[in-house]
Amino acid sequence: DSSRRCSCEFKNCSKHTANFSCNSTVRISIYIMEGKQTKTQMSEAERLELCKNLDKELDDYIDSLEKRSYTEGWPEDRWEEEMEKHPFFMTKTPTDGEQISPLMQGLQNLKYDAEENTPEELASNYKEDGNFNFKYKNYRLAILSYTEGLKAKCGNAVLNAQLLNNRSASQFMLGNYRSSLKDAEACLRLDPSHSKARARAIQCCTKMRNYDNCLKHCDSYLAYDPIDTKMQQIRTETISLKKRADRDSRLEARKMKAKTAASEALMKALRDRGVTLFQEEDEEPQLESLHPAAEGAKVTFGEDGRLSWPCVILYPEYGISDFVQQWHEDITFYSQMSEIFSESPEWDAERKYVPDSLSIFFEGDEDSRRIHRIDPTSTLGEVLSDKRYVIVAGTPKFIVFAKGSKSEQNFIMKYVLS
């Protein structure tokens, strides 16, 4: 026996328990008599023999074990990498297409398998995932998790409201205010007293300058908590912003109306003068200059009822050009050239370009390769009213040579002069 009670008169005393153990070499017995303990004495030789036999038995047992190297641990040089793969220690979720460990796969099946979880359990699991990603600012992953939770279609209105509110928060952090507002309002349909969703709906409306809807949400919020001073302040500020927005809208409408009226007056003036504008099929004619030096310039209709045009003067002989920002339609070509060449330009070393010795042309239809000579006494308006002239991008262009120059002769030879 491994243990037995003593035979003294205190048979039920737990202290009077004697342990008897034996081995192949020696037996030790402990007796308890009248509260005193006595031991059989071992000789020194017996004690040494006992120790020797115990050591031998331990060595024999160890030698009998199968000899093999331990291969199931993490490699010393890759233990951090292996730890990152373990679902209990990983700090980031696996990306799409990344191989996952069998343990992770098993945990996923256990957590997301519809056969192992009720719809409410699935929704709760996905909510936990979304909250984890939101905490670490992985808002897009959080949105995916909350969406999967909603797809579970559990019957728990409180849980569904939480999923919608949390997805609304994630959308807001990404600047998707319209989607955030949509989720917040869906949450409020399930739980009209949800203060966080209501507050976020107000923030979204403010960001989108939808002040009417913002005031509706403020009133709904105050219906549940009428003494909330912060919300009262937000409502007052929203009313002020709405008034300012309405004023700006009226001002913009007046500007647009005036701009439309001015545009219509300009187009009427062009039609009255018989000016031909180039335009693509089914498109309005382009009136704003595309020339690099004339960016933003366009024909204007003055209070005197006359037109002024941005014009480009080309000098093919030298490969350069001039830009006239506002050429009044009543100014003659001779007067304009006199102003341009009131001083000889640096590129005209021979002083050939003077108002009395200039040849001025405009190009007609590109397909016919026709050019047309301009009488210097003609006004800009008279030339632009010529049916053969087509104005491209709202910027008339004219070609100027020194009269009788070799460059002029070469130019005329390339085109059909009318």
UniProtKB/TrEMBL annotation:
A GO BP annotation: protein folding
Protein name stated in the entry: Cns1/TTC4 wheel domain-containing protein
Entries under SUPFAM superfamilies matching the protein: TPR-like
Molecular function (Gene Ontology), one example: Hsp70 protein binding
Record organism: Ladona fulva
Gene Ontology annotations for the cellular component aspect, listed alphabetically: cytosol; nucleus
Similarity section: Belongs to the TTC4 family.
The UniProt record lists the keyword Repeat: yes
UniProt cross-references to Pfam families, sorted A to Z: Wheel
Keywords: Repeat, TPR repeat
Keyword Signal in annotation: no
